[in-house]
Amino acid sequence: MTDALIRLEGITREYQMGAERVLALRGIDLEIGRNEYVAIMGPSGSGKSTMMNMLGCLDTPTAGNYWLNGHEVSRMTDDALARVRNREIGFVFQTFNLLPRASALANVELPLVYAGVSSKERRRRASAALTRVGLGDRMHHKPNELSGGQRQRVAIARALVNEPSILLADEPTGNLDSATSEEIMRVFGALHAQGQTVVIVTHEADIARHAHRVVVLRDGRVDTDQRTPPTVATAAA
Amino acid sequence: MPLYEAVVLALGSIRAQKLKSFFSLIGVLIGVTFLIAVVSIVQGMNVYMTDKFAGALIGVNTFQLRSRPNIVMGNTTEEQWRAWNRNPRITLEDAAYVEEHMQTPARFARVGFDRISVGWRGKLAKDISVNTTDAEFFTIKHWNIEEGRAFSQQEVNFGAQVVVLGHDLAAKLFEGRDPIGQTVTLGALPHRVIGVIAPQGTLFGISLDKFAVTTLGSPVRNLVNRPHVIDDFHIQAQNPDQMRAAMEEVTVLMRSRRGLRPGQPDNFHLESAEAALATWDKISKILFMALPGLVAISLVVGGIVIMNIMLMAVAERTREIGIRKALGAKRRDIMAQFVVESATLSVTGAVFGIGTGILLAFAVRAFTPLPAAVAPWSIAVGVGLGILVGMVAGVYPARQAARMDPVVALGHE
Ligand SMILES: Nc1ncnc2c1ncn2[C@@H]1O[C@H](COP(=O)(O)OP(=O)(O)OP(=O)(O)O)[C@@H](O)[C@H]1O
Ligand SMILES: [Mg+2]
Questions:
Q1: Residues in chain A with pLDDT < 50?
Q2: pLDDT tens-place string over residues B224-258
Q3: Which residues of chain B lie closer than 8 angstroms to A101, CB-CB?
Q4: Residues in contact with ligand 1 (CB, 6 Å cut-off)
Q5: Minimum CA distance residue for ligand 1 atom 4
Q6: What is the DSSP letter of B212?
């Protein structure tokens, strides 16, 4: 066994659609090391989101094995997976997925609530995370009082607050204009520069350029896997 | 998540949908209102019955020897009435016999009464309860003289035509003037007013102070009863134990005096507050037995409504559940969140119910003679039931939420 942060072996995910079986992932083998910055690309329906859910322990494979940080997570119980999601994984979604009635601060505190952190400590760490993504002055705003880019930064702060092993983002810029997208990508770049492992799913080559490695899926299989020198200075921000 | 934070969270989502929340609370609200109001009214009734009814109408540690019951509560058969009507009347001789042979220390007062007109200077109060009695009657009844004096036993013995008036009667006839020394007519017979009795208030809304008391020897007695006949023979013991002993003694004395054989029923009646209260006791027991049923029905309905509201909440908040799961919420975290929310909802209903229950009790207290008082235990039970109903109603929806697949929940619009 290598010391890879993520190791996938023959990961298969099958969906049953009535009488029909859909193979969303057909035997994925992949390793991702610490402090890598990986973009997952591929045409629509190629299995990118399914793979993200798998990496994020939101879903379990029909067949194959998944080691995260040395632990076999592919056969864990629901509650064990919840714990892994809480401690090891930070999610950023295309649609932000913030709780609409909660302030930015309360949203960022949420993973800490489930980690059993005291409310004082939660407040301290959540405001630190918000400050880190440049929202120190928006902590008490509700999501609908924030711009799309600001919302996504709240989501990033929330993903980071528990110091996860990996940051997973499924089309994080899909709902943002290109200027705001660049801004968000700079945040990811900065986090990566600080040692964070980042995996993002994207359609856009412009976005994928920020990554150091591009994995392309096709029909549920890894089509190409290329390490590329970044074309954009990611250590900026 | 600590309970307190879970409750704050729950209150937040309840507030977010005020109207829906309010309607969902109605069942629990009504159930708890019932509980608080009925308990306080029944307990008020209890106090009223024992204090006022027993105390004012019959007297403490007192019973009456009568030919038939005076206060009849509950159902009585036709036959029973006929039997009572056949009973011989109580006579002065019966009273003398009992008084002479009784061992238990006691006070005695013979009473004859009827409803007759009382007049003064052309003014006439009709249908006034006029008692002809002994001097001890004032002591037995605990009457306070507010003006003038009561009559003595000597006055009773030589049949003095003196009268003591109840407060309301005096007020009605004399309208503020001083009644002492004035001559009123009982029927047509002139009597000199020597005293007025302090007000006793009302019983079931009827004044207890529209009456007159005169001596047993007064000629009025001929309007009230046949010669030698009295209506009640009041006997007051010193304590409840002695009263029971005295009642047994009187029974034995009367049976032997009337030559009743063993197995023959008594042809006289001993009336005590205890007997009258026993009937009330039965009624209040029935009320207390029916109460859990009433409360349970509305709580079950309330619980079902809350369960539906919670199922709707779970469906509406599927995405929130997905987000929470993605961020690390375990099944039991989600479960707890919705159970606490359901319980909080229900307790809110219970709190409103306690409020309306207390208001009802106050209204009863203000507008009826019942001293309805809210029992602290009923408030505690109300809150407890609220929590229980909410938790039970919340379990199923909460389980639905906890079992959701995170990917499916996140994909939900
Ligand atoms: N819950 C599901 N039930 C049945 N089939 C599913 C389900 N989720 C995904 N699939 C199928 O699995 C395949 C991969 O889907 P996935 O969402 O992973 O694609 P994707 O690469 O993320 O596409 P897109 O770029 O459009 O987001 C598709 O054929 C899709 O129809
Ligand atoms: Mg997708």
A1: 1, 233-237
A2: 888 889 999 999 998 888 988 999 999 999 999 99
A3: 12-13, 16
A4: A 15, 17, 22, 24, 42, 44-50
A5: A15
A6: E
> Residue A53 CA: which ligand 1 atom is closest?
18
Using CA positions, which residue lies closest to atom 8 of ligand 1? Answer: A50
CA-wise closest residue to A189 among A172, A164, A176: A172
B window 173-202, beta carbon within 8 A of A: none
Residue B408 forms contact with A (CB below 8 Å): no
Q: How far is CA A213 from each of CA A35, A89, A93, B68, rounded to the nearest angstrom?
A: 11, 20, 20, 108
Distance CA B371, CA A113 (A): 51
The answer, yes or no, to whether residue B222 has pLDDT greater than 50, is yes
**Domain limits of chain B?**
3-52+278-410, 62-272
* Choice from A14, A17, A49, A216 to test ligand 1 binding pocket (greatest atom count within 8 A of CB): A49
With CB atoms and an 8 Å threshold, state whether B1 touches A113: yes
d(CA A68, CA A82): 14
* C-alpha distance across the termini of chain B, in Å: 27
What's the rounded Cα separation, in Å, for the pair B402 and B341?
14
All structural domains of chain A, each given as residue ranges with its CATH number in brackets, are: 35-60+85-236 (3.40.50.300)
Summarize pLDDT for B34-87 with one digit per residue, the tens: 889 888 888 888 777 777 666 666 677 889 899 988 766 666 788 888 888 888
Cα–Cα distance between B14 and A189 in angstroms, integer? Answer: 41
Position in ligand 1 atom list of the atom nearest CA B407:
1
Given the cut 0.95, state whether the ipTM is greater than it: no
Q: pLDDT by residue (tens digit) across A47-75?
A: 999 999 999 999 999 999 999 998 999 88
Across the range B298-324, mean pLDDT stands at 92
Nearest CA to CA, how far is B337 from chain A (Å)? 12
**Nearest ligand 1 atom, CA B408:** 1
At B91-106, the pLDDT tens digits run: 999 999 999 999 999 9
CA angle centred on A134, ends A130 and A139, rounded to 5°: 45
Task: Please name the helix (run of DSSP H) or strand (run of DSSP E) that holds residue B1, with its range, or none.
Answer: none
pTM of the shown model? 0.73
pLDDT digits (tens, 9 = 90+) for A7-37: 999 999 999 988 899 999 999 999 999 999 9
CB A126 within 8 A of CB A154: no
Give the C-alpha separation, B219 to B197, whole Å.
22
